[in-house]
Amino acid sequence: MAIMIEIVKHIEYQQWANGKIGEQIKTLPTDVIVKDFGGSFPSIRLTLLHMLQADYRWLQRLNGIPIVDIPSYWEHADMNSMLSTWSNVQEQLVSRVKELVPGGNQNIKFTTAKGDSYELPLADVIAHLVNHATHHRGQLVNMMRMAGVKPESTDYFLFAVAQQK
Questions:
Q1: How far apart are CA 110 and CA 113, in angstroms?
Q2: What is residue 1's predicted lDDT score, i.e. its pLDDT?
Q3: Which domain holds residue 57?
């Protein structure tokens, strides 16, 4: 059961860290948000959109929907709407993981956007989710630094210390 407690803690960390970055992104001017910095998702906006889409896909998969379509209107959503939707998806992810934990490390079935089907234990899915978010938060932090903005720290130990208070 210890692993189940840890996955809840890790998905709560993801929500906390994504929330900190999201709050900082709200303060950035539009020209910084849409600026092409290069990379796989070249702007803050496109990186955030990718993170929202990925989290939404995983939320639906955790809800038993293995193949997921992304709402097309997200492509043109303004930043505040996108951040609000992302925050809502984060809250739903935490709630859903907490609902699944009493059932143990059950397998989650899913199909990727490329059409490949897989099945992984819940703990591995959460490890992937958190790792994916950490990777892209790093990209966001790099873009912010390139724009001359000092990013918020989202180190795990800061989350852990905050939980002790």
A1: 10
A2: 64
A3: 2-164
